[in-house]
Amino acid sequence: MIRIRVLSRVLGLALPLLAGAASAAELRVVSSGGFAAAYRALAPEFERRTGDTLVTEWGPSMGHTPQAVPARLERGEPIDVVVMVGYALDDLAKQGKVEADTRTPLARSGIAIAVRAGAPKPDIATDEALRRTLLAAKSIAYSDSASGVYIERELFKRLGIEDQVKGKARMIPAEPVGAVVARGDAEIGFQQLSELKPVPGIEIVGLLPQDVQLYTVFSAGVVAGSRQPEAARALVRFLASPEAAAAVRASGMEPLTAGAGR
């Protein structure tokens, strides 16, 4: 009788734990590289708190590569949460591919310039200095996401060097620009500061001058038809929480969470 009572008590204690385990979700996430460093720092804490498992892949917010978030959704990949450039996410929400009421700004990041480790750091302190540096560079690389679109379509024009750099500047699809610079395939590379910081073998020269800088907002949202909608919403809330702000800031971005400070 005593054994039965003890066993009953043990089972009674175990049932809530089993129920929690049974309710644990597996969430499939696709994130832009711009938020990758912060996400990698935050994901283990979310898993620890919730018991959920995050299965994560990476892809640009736009473009035509198979890894790009829009391409993944178009072919019906089972994704629960996307983290990507804000205006690109807004477009997906308008198309009904992301639940509009879950769109949540997380952080913003400026564009920086990098050179290969050990190379001289060029002057980019002013618009004119940046212009001279780009004209003197033998090769220039930029991403196929938001920062690269801006570089190609607007920055070169604003500096008046669009024709002069056309033959030596190229967009890099589905690869970190820092990696291209690190192996010597480009003398100068442009990308979000948060995407350049984790790359070994490069040195970050600095951010673009303020009057030609473009800040990109990264947002998260739940994919329409998510198989784990409540857990997906919880992840979005966590990434936007004040508790996430320190990791976001350490990655080179400015958190947009209310009360996060700067």
Gross CATH architecture of the largest domain: 3-Layer(aba) Sandwich
Quickly give the structural class: alpha/beta
- Name of the CATH superfamily of the largest domain: Periplasmic binding protein-like II
How many domain modules? 2
The low-pLDDT segments are: 1-22
The CATH topology of the largest domain corresponds to D-Maltodextrin-Binding Protein, domain 2
Spatial separation of the terminal alpha carbons: 63 Å
The portion of residues forming beta strands comes to 15-25%
According to DSSP, the number of beta strands is 11
Overall shape: elongated
| Amount of helix | 40-55%
Radius of gyration over C-alpha positions, nearest whole angstrom? 22 Å
- pLDDT averaged over residues: 89
Keywords: Signal
GO molecular function: molybdate ion binding
Protein name: ABC transporter substrate-binding protein
Organism: Methylobacterium platani
Explain briefly what this protein structure is.
The chain is of the alpha/beta class and 262 residues long. The protein is 40% helix and 22% strand.
Question: What features would you describe in this structure?
Answer:
By secondary structure, this protein is α/β, with parallel strands linked by helices. It has 2 domains: 24-108 and 217-255, 3-Layer(aba) Sandwich (D-Maltodextrin-Binding Protein, domain 2), CATH 3.40.190.10; 111-212, 3-Layer(aba) Sandwich (D-Maltodextrin-Binding Protein, domain 2), CATH 3.40.190. It is built from 11 helices and 11 strands. The strands form 2 sheets. It has a 6-stranded mixed sheet. The protein has a 5-stranded mixed sheet with strand order 7-6-8-5-9. Strand 1, helix 2 and strand 2 form a beta-alpha-beta unit. It is elongated, with a radius of gyration of 22 Å. The relative contact order is 0.20.
